[in-house]
């Protein structure tokens, strides 16, 4: 029996969209964590003997996620809460990729994993920091992956 071109088209679309979501999530997570995406400013005081401190010139510089969040009043505790969600949103497309592979092998459980990956990524839309970009980058790709996975024909 000959296999036609269109038979595996849904699988190809699902795999391509999911791999693109994985790449986008990894690139964005690395850029968000290690890139100069924040600005920190400091200002010294002039004349420590004066009753009222007079502020000197302010100097600002670019900083990365760890410099800004780990140096706060709570230290690494503040950064670890954000890292949990960034890690979760980064691995969501990989969960969906596992679901695509399982669905291609005939397991119905794969659709659930793709839906779970999409749902995890969709929770990033509520982030007030940079997390909502995960939903903007990966959300549409994972939605295409979910629809294509639902349309897959299993041999």
Question: What is the topological layout?
Answer:
Blueprint (H helix, E strand, L loop, with lengths): L8 H26 L3 E9 L7 E10 L1 H5 L6 H29 L4 H14 L9 H19 L5
Antiparallel strand pairs: 1-2
Helix pairs in contact: 1-3, 1-5, 3-4, 3-5, 4-5
Task: Please state how the strands of the largest beta sheet are arranged side by side.
Answer: 1-2
Approximately what portion of the residues adopt beta-strand conformation? 5-15%
Mean pLDDT: 85
Biggest beta sheet summary: 2 strands, antiparallel
From the alpha carbons, calculate the radius of gyration and give it in angstroms: 23 Å
Q: What's the overall geometry?
A: rod-shaped
SSE succession: HEEHHHH
Low-confidence segments: none
Structural class: alpha+beta
Helical run tally: 5
Report the count of strand segments: 2
The helical percent reads: 55-70%
Terminal-residue CA separation: 12 Å
Structure description:
With 155 residues, the protein is α+β, with helices and mostly antiparallel strands. Helix 1 (9-34) runs antiparallel to helix 3 (76-104). It has a two-stranded antiparallel ribbon. The longest helix is centred in the middle third of the chain and has 29 residues, at 76-104. The chain has a domain at 5-35 and 74-150. The protein starts with 8 loop residues before the first helix and ends in a 5-residue tail after the last helix. The model has no long low-confidence stretch (mean pLDDT 85). It is built from 5 helices and 2 strands. The protein is rod-shaped. Strand 1 (38-46) and strand 2 (54-63) form a beta hairpin.
């Amino acid at each position: 029996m000959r296999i036609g071109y269109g038979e595996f088209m849904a699988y190809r679309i699902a795999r391509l969209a999911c791999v693109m979501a994985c790449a986008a999530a990894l690139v964005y997570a690395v850029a968000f964590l290690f890139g100069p995406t924040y600005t920190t400013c400091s200002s010294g005081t002039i004349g420590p003997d004066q009753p009222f401190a007079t502020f000197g010139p302010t100097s600002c510089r670019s900083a990365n996620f760890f410099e800004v969040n780990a140096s706060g009043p709570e230290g690494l505790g503040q950064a670890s809460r954000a890292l949990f969600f960034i890690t979760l949103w980064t691995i969501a497309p990989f969960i969906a990729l596992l679901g695509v592979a399982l669905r291609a092998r005939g397991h119905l459980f794969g659709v659930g994993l793709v839906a779970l990956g999409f749902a995890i990524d969709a929770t990033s839309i509520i982030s007030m920091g940079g997390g909502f970009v995960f939903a903007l980058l990966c959300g549409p790709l994972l939605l295409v992956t979910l629809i294509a996975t639902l349309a897959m024909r299993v041999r």
